[in-house]
Amino acid sequence: MILAEIVTVGDELLDGRVLDTNARKIALFLADRGIQVARHLSIGDREGEIARAILEAAGRCDLVITTGGLGPTEDDRTRHAVAAATGADLAFHEDVFARIEALFRARGMPVPASNRLQALFPAGAEVLENGAGSAPGFAVRLGRARVLSAPGVPSELDWMLRESIDRWIRERGLDGEAPRIERFRLSGLSESAMQDLLDGAGQRPAGLVVRDRVDAGEIDLELVLPPPRDASRWAMLDGLVKALEGEFGESIVSRDGTTLVEALVRKLVALGRTLSVAESCTGGLIGHLITEVPGASAVFVEGTVAYSNPAKVRSLGVPEELLAAHGAVSEEVVKAMARGALERTGSDFALATSGILGPGGATPGKPVGLVWTALAGREPGFGPVRAWRREFPGPRSAKKVFAAKHALDRLRRALLAARG
Amino acid sequence: MILAEIVTVGDELLDGRVLDTNARKIALFLADRGIQVARHLSIGDREGEIARAILEAAGRCDLVITTGGLGPTEDDRTRHAVAAATGADLAFHEDVFARIEALFRARGMPVPASNRLQALFPAGAEVLENGAGSAPGFAVRLGRARVLSAPGVPSELDWMLRESIDRWIRERGLDGEAPRIERFRLSGLSESAMQDLLDGAGQRPAGLVVRDRVDAGEIDLELVLPPPRDASRWAMLDGLVKALEGEFGESIVSRDGTTLVEALVRKLVALGRTLSVAESCTGGLIGHLITEVPGASAVFVEGTVAYSNPAKVRSLGVPEELLAAHGAVSEEVVKAMARGALERTGSDFALATSGILGPGGATPGKPVGLVWTALAGREPGFGPVRAWRREFPGPRSAKKVFAAKHALDRLRRALLAARG
Prior knowledge:
Two copies of one chain form a homodimer.
Chain A: E1 3-9, H1 11-14, H2 22-31, E2 36-43, H3 47-60, E3 63-67, H4 78-86, E4 90-92, H5 94-106, E5 120-122, E6 126-128, E7 137-142, E8 145-150, H6 154-171, E9 180-187, H7 191-199, E10 209-215, E11 218-225, H8 231-248, E12 252-254, H9 260-271, E13 275-279, H10 285-290, E14 300-305, H11 309-316, H12 320-326, H13 331-345, E15 349-355, E16 370-377, E17 386-391, H14 396-415
Parallel strand pairs in A: 1-2, 1-3, 3-8, 13-14, 13-15
Antiparallel strand pairs in A: 4-5, 6-7, 7-8, 9-11, 9-12, 10-11, 15-16, 16-17
């Protein structure tokens, strides 16, 4: 089995400014490819220390992955450190610099002199494409180990793991027999409710690893069964998966990691139906989440962020009397918002939210965290506007995410029965 | 200055099951006490490897803090590893076990035999109280270093950092003088342009550490001058800071870490001015960012997510002829969107975005990444609607963030001259 170590570089990881999420991302990436991580080290921006850490790691394992320290500033020292560790000089790559120049030209900006640094690589290194930023990664040999360096910017690392690093690892045959992974993306279920259902779902095969992760109101559950393949362990996992499919039921968004909003947009596309949203407390987040999905323009007609009461009246047709009688955070008003969005935009469905996210704004009977959600549908069989009352916990921004996800989940569930 | 290393123990940190948040928590705790963290290592549950890691760390620094591996199960090996590293036996502490027994009795539960393990400590260790769980921590000497071990359960670690570890560090005089930190939050400036300005800004005092971090289109720059306080170094930093204030100029969002959107909302509140937004490609993200700031309701009137052309006509009054003549992604249309939002909502300012975020949608002369931004203002002195053309790099979601931040930054800059 291939043994790996992860080295994340940056003073900001050691003085507490930044939470290191890259190491875990890489660990999951490697685990899925049957590669075991033995150590993860975070180290500061000093070249000598980075070089020493890489040398030590390469002496213990087959693959060292570093992130960070590839930017254009003088405290970006990873390329120098790898060169020092391997005893190589840094070589300037004209073709890489040409690409960096083109990137800046496209933004109408001159290339700062410091960006020349990002075209320097240890002599003999293989350059690894970075489709999400200006600093490519690279790979070198160091004794019996290989050292692979990628930028620390999460979006750039994501791109490289998915594309160039994945390809590089497969081409060199470094990936081993992958574990069997059964994945459940769950929505509208608490972590403890999920745990209770899991505990009651039956026997687990020996060696099964359960990974669960809460991701902005959704749960990513993975049952990981490492090799070797063995009939009785495999059959036992089949049984467990079947039981869980029954227990989780409509809370299952996908079995392949497809997220709530991706599943919802795809379903609307398949059904040929459109959506509009009327957001008060979620402030645009629902629209933002929907438009994160490529192709959302086929289903998303319009969003109204009616943060003020006049906006609710003007742009959603909420009667002033209703606001005066019940307040903006009420079943009556949130239903009127959904109805107004449906009528004004001509969409097939409309979601509406109105709530109190705090820190201020609570009134008797309406605590901070209270959110009303409504769903209106145009089709005759869909019935009257539905509404839900929820109280969400946590800090303001978490409440907002919960509220947005809850609204999206209500529409997802409502569409489950529909064919498409 | 006291130098520390952090060792977090647990297989679940290396296979990606759990995101390590303890290391950052400890790093911040130490930074606040003038203690510098040189390395953070995550390692699995094997005793020999933990012992080796602790020995290596103790050879490099003054203080090693470990978390994890103090539970009652057989794969909790940290106490054995510390004993092995120091060459001590494990000694049973009757008084600690009595406290564990009392804890279980209070919950009406028998003490599992395995919990006897939690009363074992390397001979000569000082026991550190854990008021939030059953496993106390402990501290030992190892050569010139001290090794301090705490449980990995976050709530228990929190308690110990706040109480017993804080007391232990102060009683031993390990806490030092905190560094002087000068912070710049910058917006509308690339990291490399920032670096070029920094390089040209003048002399740096000896020992100055420059930390910079890109955070969703903004830059957090910190100049950190460690003690001892020294008149000439301090004066040199004063000079550098003054020069940078001039060089960065309007790109400075704040000197205290206040973010772009926080600064913008506060400025609008101070001026008593309101804002509406008309978003196409940003899909609600600008509204979402504004409403992340508590108190945004005082300035944010309404957002229109006009994702479709009919929505631009219906809700923003964009003339259909304009859309037909120039397309949705054009200077003419984005200006009409801003003007429409201003007129329909009655706000003092309106921001509008229209762009192509991809992956599809490019046309000749309009590449993926092209975004038009417009800003309209009501006041007579504000002049006509202004517009900017940009091409943003990276994946779809990064482009969206850049576009939203760019729009917010244009309004921030426009308001700089205004008093409030």
